[in-house]
Write a structure and sequence with these properties.
Number of strands: 2
Helix content: over 70%
Number of domains: 1
Strand content: under 5%
CATH architecture: Up-down Bundle
CATH class: Mainly Alpha
Shape: globular
Order of helices and strands: EHHHHHHHHHHHHHHHHHHE
Largest sheet: 2 strands, antiparallel
Distance between the termini: 10 Å
Radius of gyration: 20 Å
């Protein structure tokens, strides 16, 4: 890999927000474009878990079948992410990002017009292709644009946009389900998911291709050296690809097992209404947002791998308490903050970590595959949790799959090297 180590300069501001004032104009434009895109991406994805109870009631589908739509979305995102990562290596990071945003925005709008569950399933699957691709292109774009000493905090801060998008989805749910009957409100939720399309206008005007990617692509075109989509499975890169894929499988499997079914857990086993559950979800979201920010600082200060190890252990402890202890609703609300904190904060180091693991000519393909392989396998968790919940409590089902995922996350992260401080160069 064409990278070299760098150290923190004496007197450098290592605070969470210290990186921003020293960023260049191109870095700031890329930062805000990707932060907005990821927030809208998070809003779009979290809409379905929030309306799943309404879908179950209106169309008379069981929990396992309803969870299948979430699983299919994530499976499709795995394919879309790998494909978009490879496309980003061939046609550029910015252009690929534009295409994926338009794609998932369009299919979110179509979800609002679904007439039955089969149609919704198809639209969510097609949406997933763009959903997975957006992260792959955006994460590589951020990782290559931001300098090494700021990469963890900048990319991690962008990741916090997911919590903002989740919060927007919950806010939209509270407003729409208060003003409209449920059979109309869920359709408007999906219609709002088309808003990311507007971001493309900003991307076309202000965000430029990273120089390191443009140089590598130009050299490849001049020499005819265009790596195949399977190059990440060859030579010494293969071990990195396997271990990184296991890391992302664990971290995303745990996350989806929790966040996909917690809204349903609150309204069924805790007997809360959709509107009254908003406060509980808000505690989870605030904790998630704080976790992203602290995780971003932690990744630059103590390293990507240490972030993964400590937060996966924290998530295991909190998940056990949240799902297995006989807590009052008041205590459950309080515990929502640390649950969101530990179940989300480790994502702040993931984008920078994957960017630093792969050489520039394979970065889009490698990063896109590994992250979205994790999505694909993690995609099974919403379905399996829903299926198991028909034989035991939903709380037990969530706990079982979350603990398995976080243990896998810990072990795979332990087997990979630390990458903090690596400077990216164009491949020779």
């Amino acid at each position: 890999m064409a990278t070299s180590e760098s150290t923190v300069a004496p007197g450098e501001d290592t605070s969470l927000t210290g990186f921003y004032k020293d960023m260049t104009v191109p870095e700031k434009r890329t930062f805000w474009a990707c932060a907005t895109g990821w927030a809208l991406d998070g809003m779009d994805f979290m809409i379905y878990p929030l309306v799943i109870g309404t879908i179950i009631t209106l169309w008379k589908v069981d929990a396992g079948t309803a969870g299948l739509a979430g699983t299919v979305t994530l499976l499709a995102s795995a394919v879309g992410g790998w494909g978009a990562g490879y496309l980003a290596d061939r046609i550029g990071r910015v252009r690929t990002l534009q295409l994926t945003i338009l794609w998932f925005s369009f299919f979110s709008l179509l979800c609002a017009f679904a007439q039955n569950f089969d149609q919704l399933l198809i639209f969510r699957a097609l949406l997933g292709l763009g959903f997975g691709g957006e992260w792959a292109a955006g994460a590589v774009l951020m990782g290559e644009t931001i300098r090494a000493q700021y990469r963890g905090r900048a990319v991690g801060s962008v990741q916090s946009g997911w919590a903002v998008g989740w919060g927007l989805a919950v806010l939209a749910q509270a407003v729409l389900f208060s003003l409209l009957p449920a059979e109309q409100a869920w359709r408007w939720m999906f219609a709002i998911g088309a808003l990311p399309a507007l971001l493309v206008l900003y991307l076309r005007s202000y965000v430029k291709e990273p120089e390191v990617a443009a140089q590598t692509r130009a050299r490849g075109a001049a020499t005819g050296d265009r790596p195949s989509i399977l190059a990440i499975f060859q030579g010494p890169i293969l071990k990195t690809t396997i271990l990184a894929s296991l890391v992302t499988t664990g971290c995303q499997g745990g996350y989806y097992a929790i966040t996909f079914w917690v809204p349903r857990f609150l309204t069924t086993e805790r007997k809360l209404s959709i509107v009254s559950s908003t406060g509980y979800l808000s505690a989870l979201i605030v904790g998630s947002f704080a976790g992203y920010l602290v995780g971003a600082w932690f990744a630059d200060r103590y390293g990507r791998r240490n972030l993964f190890l400590s937060f996966s252990l924290g998530a295991i402890v909190v998940v056990l308490a949240y799902t297995q202890l006989p807590l009052s609703n008041e205590l459950l609300w309080v515990l929502g903050f640390p649950l969101g904190f530990f179940a989300s904060g480790y994502f702040s180091g993931m984008g920078a970590f994957l960017t630093e693991l792969f050489p520039t000519r394979l970065r889009g393909s490698g990063q896109g595959f590994c992250y979205n392989f994790g999505r694909g396998v993690g995609a099974l968790f919403p379905f399996l949790v829903g299926y198991l919940s028909q034989m035991t409590s939903l709380a037990n089902a969530i706990c079982l799959f979350a603990l398995f995922a976080y243990l896998l996350f810990f072990l795979a992260a332990y087997a990979l090297p630390e990458t903090r401080g690596k400077v990216l160069h164009a491949d020779a």
